[in-house]
Amino acid sequence: GELLVDEFLSPRKLKDLTGVDDLQQVKALEMRVDTRENSLGSFGVYLPNLRELKLNNSLLVSVRDLGTTLSHLHVLWMARCGLSDLDGISSCSSLRELYIAYNNISDLSQLTWLEHLKVLDLEGNNIEDINQMLYLGLCGQLRRLTVEGNLICLKPSAESAEEPDYNYRAEVKKLIPHLEYLDDIPASQT
């Protein structure tokens, strides 16, 4: 068992995965992982020029499982990974695009650390309080946001009754005034 964990994403394994001998050449990587049984370790150390990482349909217990060595990543896909929180996302401090659709995320406070974030896909998560958008308002570069498929599209909070005149687009725009696109439609269209 110990050998497996050490071996999981070693330089040799990464070379096999990517098909290149010089891991400095790797700019994008797509893989499916299960961190319940294997650690990813510090694989980012071996891939200093990695800018895009696609982990869709993986099983990630936590974003922390990615380690702290991905500060150079620009784009990260973690759709359908079973994530329930974003603790640890701050170590991906250079992120410009984050695609985390179809997880179980309800707390967006960790995203305030991503000061370069321009694109965020939160479709089909568990965001049930419109006030979570306040955190995204602190991401000054955020221009494109997808939130359809969350409870906030129907009502402002889990406790509130559905209001016929509630317009989530107008509410989100109020909380994130610099947003240009909401659910792939210009944010100015409410």
Automatic annotation (TrEMBL):
Gene3D superfamilies: Ribonuclease Inhibitor
Superkingdom, taxonomy of origin: Eukaryota
Keywords: Leucine-rich repeat, Repeat
Repeat recorded as keyword: yes
Keyword Repeat assigned: yes
InterPro entries in UniProt: Leu-rich_rpt, Leu-rich_rpt_4, LRR_dom_sf, LRRC56
Designated name of the protein: Leucine-rich repeat-containing protein 56
UniProt organism field: Merops nubicus (Northern carmine bee-eater)
